[in-house]
Amino acid sequence: MKQKIGYLTIDDVPTRCTKRKLDYLISKNIPAILFCRGELIRKKINIVIYAIKKGFIIGNHSYNHPNFSKISLEEAKEQIEKTDKLIEEAYKKAGVKRQIKLFRFPFGDKGNGDFEKLIPKNKHAKEIQKILKKLGYRQPKFTGITYRWYKKLKKDADVVWTFDSCEYELPLRKVLKRIDESPRINSKSNDIILIHDFSTPKTFSKIIEKLISKGIKFKLPNLK
Ligand SMILES: [Zn+2]
Question: pTM to 2 decimals?
Answer without folding.
Answer: 0.95
